[in-house]
Amino acid sequence: MDDQGRRKLGIIAGVGLAGGLLPGITLGPETVDVALSVLIATIVLVVLTQVIYIGPSARVPLPALAAFGLAGFAQDALIWWLLSWLGPKVSELRVEGLTTILLAALITRSTLLLLSQLSPAMETAED
Predict the structure, then answer these.
(1) What is the greatest pairwise CA distance in the chain?
(2) CB 108 within 8 Å of CB 80
C-alpha cells in the first residue's frame, strides 16, 4: 500500500474511532444516517488533508514525527471545527464543543500517524 493509501486508511479509522468513542459526536439515529455522517466526515478530511498535506512520506525520527504530528493536529482540529458547522447542514453529523473537536483531532491524527509509521515501507527495486 502506498503512502496515500495509508493516510486514507488512517483517516477512515480515525473518523470511525472518534465517532464511536466520543460522546460529543452524534452521527445519527439510524444506520443509514450513521453511514452517511461517517462518509461525509471522511470525504471532507481526506480531501482537505490531500490538498494541504502535513506529514512524513516515510518513517522519520521522533522529533520530526512530533513536529508533523503537532502541525497535523492543528489541521485536523480546524477540519473538525469545519465539520461541526457543516455537518448539520448536510447530514445528521453533530460535533458539540471545543473539547470534542480537539479530542477528535487527536484521535484522527494519532491513528493516521500510527498507521503510516507501523505499516511496512515500500521497497524499491534496484536495477
Answers:
(1) 56
(2) yes
Residue among 16, 4, 33 at smallest CA distance from 93 = 33
For residues 117 and 65, is the Cβ–Cβ distance under 8 A? yes
Q: For residues 93 and 43, what is the distance between their CA atoms, to the nearest angstrom? A: 13
Q: Nine-digit cell at 116?
A: 503510516
pLDDT by residue for the chain (127 residues), tens digit each?
677 788 888 888 998 899 889 999 888 888 888 888 888 888 898 888 888 877 666 677 878 878 888 988 999 999 999 999 988 888 888 899 999 999 999 999 999 888 877 756 555 445 4
Residues 6+ apart with CB under 8 A from 91: 28, 33, 36, 37, 40
CA–CA gap between residue 35 and residue 48 (Å, rounded) = 20
**Torsion angle in degrees (nearest 10) through CA of 98, 101, 102, 107:** 160
Cα-flanking dihedrals φ and ψ of residue 67, to 5°?
-65, -45
SS3 state of residue 95: strand
For the entire predicted model, the pTM comes to 0.82
